[in-house]
Input
Amino acid sequence: MRRKIIHYKNGATLIYNRAHEKNVTAILAGFLCGSHYEEGGLPHFVEHTLAEKTSTKTREEVFTERSLMEEVNYMTSPNFLGGIAYQSNKKEQLIWQIISQAFFDSQVDQTVLEKHKKIIAEEQATTARKLRLDNRVLLRHLWFMDNSYSGVDDFVQKSIGNQQFLDSVTIQDVLDFKNRHFYSDKFILCVVSSRRLYRVKKLADKYFISHLKVPTEKSLILPVDKRYDTIDKLQVETDEKSEIERVAVSICFHPTDPEKFPLNKEQHVIEECLLEKVGSFRDLVRDNGLVYSSPSVTFTTTCKNADASLSIVFTASNYQNIEKIFGLLGDSIARLKDDFITEEDVKKYKDGYQMHLDRELKHKKSAVSRVQSYIDKQVYYGDDWPRFTKRQNRRSIKALTVEKVKDFASLVLNPENNVIITFSGNVKKEQVKDISYYKNLIFKQ
Ligand SMILES: [Zn+2]
Output
């Protein structure tokens, strides 16, 4: 069954989808008031106070209730502050009740406040440390690309807050935040359940919809606009403790039809040619004895009408080798634009695709991972989520030709496009050169 999106008169939204699993309900409920709405850490702080005592239950009782569940958790994303839970349908009422009381009946006093100030101070330090790890380079690179955060410190400052914030935050701040944001038109509930819709609607009314405050005027629903900068950019995030240097490079471009970009199968052929073919980037790097971990290549888009990018990540033990790898990437790109893509490559990809489709069909996503991705989609796209049928996918595979792949390659691998680079690890700032230097290596100019 297709997903159902229901808009209530009070402005609230319910997203419903049938679970693949038997006898399971997963819910994610909350408000559009994540860390992008109020920078400095307050949304995340409020999230921490949700799982505390209520007007009728002690902290211990709430905790025991929670431990009986398969999963109950609270999260603050850039857009959303929510509670997620899933459980077999036998105890299903309880997950609705737990998340509902967290939003509508959690109590905050001085003890709760002081406890979470300590926890969050600890969280600031560990989050920063974790995010500086080598394997998070792509995440940091994506933030930098879409201007979300200029680096780890900026992220921590804006989403978790600094010590000054923790010292100053009061009970009144928490209450005021709820009064500013917990309104019906900012509320989204997503349910993936083996229960039928009429049953889910009943529970939604009982636990959420009927408790919501209706705003006197329409709330400000922030638009999500993640367009990339139209400039070349470079950042260096040094971590002296690291033993390697890792670099993420993105070439940004405007897809000819952004709405249908996921159907664009040319991107997979390019990925494959760049990485897998004899004489490809990965082999070149290896043949030169340079590889520390294999380079990877992926295409990404952020949301509707946004630019897309080709991202390449590679690693080496020192700066000299990083620079050599840039040169080898340039060699591969030059060959790819030349006569490197053949009928054979396209045919190979077409043959392999059916296998890929079959494999995807077998791996159905769990209810709990679906509620999370549905909320993100609703936030980014509103009611018109992009959704492509198997038939559309097959058609676009059939229509794939060498000419089309080459046209796409020249759209993407074009020196006119903007390039964004993130250096991280044991790189020394003084070794890193100007962005135009690397751009010249990539495009062999
Ligand atoms: Zn936290």
User: Anything to note?
Assistant: The pocket of zinc ion is lined by residues 44, 48, 123 (CB under 6 Å). The first strand starts at residue 4 and ends at 7. Residues 123 and 330 are 41 Å apart (CA to CA).
